[in-house]
Structure formats: C-alpha cells, structure tokens
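Blinded run. Sample ID left blank on purpose so nobody reads anything into the name before looking at the predicted structure. Input follows.
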Amino acid sequence: MGSKKKIFEPITGIGINRAIELSKSIPEKLNNFQEDIRYLDSNQLFQKQFTHQLLAITNDLEELNHLLLVMAKPKDIYYSSLRTALAAVSNISNALIITAYYLDSENKYKRLLNKNTFSFEVNLILKKLDFVKQILERLSKGNSSNRGIERPVSDFRSRA
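Blinded prediction complete.
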C-alpha cells in the first residue's frame, strides 16, 4: 500500500551496489597511496601525481557521500542507519583536500607532509569507511539495525 519499506526488505539497486563498491575500493586506493609515499622524503612529495591521486580518492569519497545522501529518505525505515553512515563519511575528504592543496607543486604556499599525522588521519578514514561498509552490507541484506558495529570514533554526531 504505502511506499514505506517493510522491516526485512533489503535495499537494492545501482546506488547501494555502487556505494558498497566505493567503500571497498577507496581503502585500496588509500593504501596504494601510502605505499607510493612510504620511502619518499617529505620534500620529494611535491609532485602532480600525488596531488592527482589524492584528488581522485576525494572524488570517490564525494560520490559515496552523494549516494548516501540520495538513499537517505526521512520516512524510510533505514533512515537512521544511513544517517549514521552519512555522519561518518561527510567530512573525511577534508584532510585529503587540504593535503593535496599543500602538496601541489604549483602552489605558492607549500608545507612538508608530517607522515605520522597523515597516517593517523588515513587510519581514521579507513576505520570510518569500514564502519560505513558494514552498515551498507547490512542494509543490502535487509537488516536495518547497526547495533554491534563498533563506531570508529565517539565524537562524530549522529542521532542513531
């Protein structure tokens, strides 16, 4: 009768499949980036290829953010889970954008990359993406609850 989804009806479609695919491929790209810069000195990172790699990862993160935003409908039974996933993903691209800005070789202002701080940020991003991937996999199976999934940090805001 109504358009509201039943309790155990899974979310299906191109959007959820693409979101799951992105949540699996972005960590691989981040790990590849970290492998590329592992043995380089901080002053050797001012190359276009590293900026382009970070911006490509950021584009994928923004696409994932957009897909979650489109899927989250306020009257849907999966709204709170999608809102929690959206809260985890919404601002993680900022660290990569800022890093890409300062690694741009044509930029007037450059900063050396602190690899310890950057690896901390990347690990936090990977934890958040794993959290989102677990939520999306549960929603694709029809489980609307995100209980039992450990949250990556306790300070991101969500009402769930």
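Unblinding after everyone has recorded impressions. The two ends are 27 Å apart (CA to CA).
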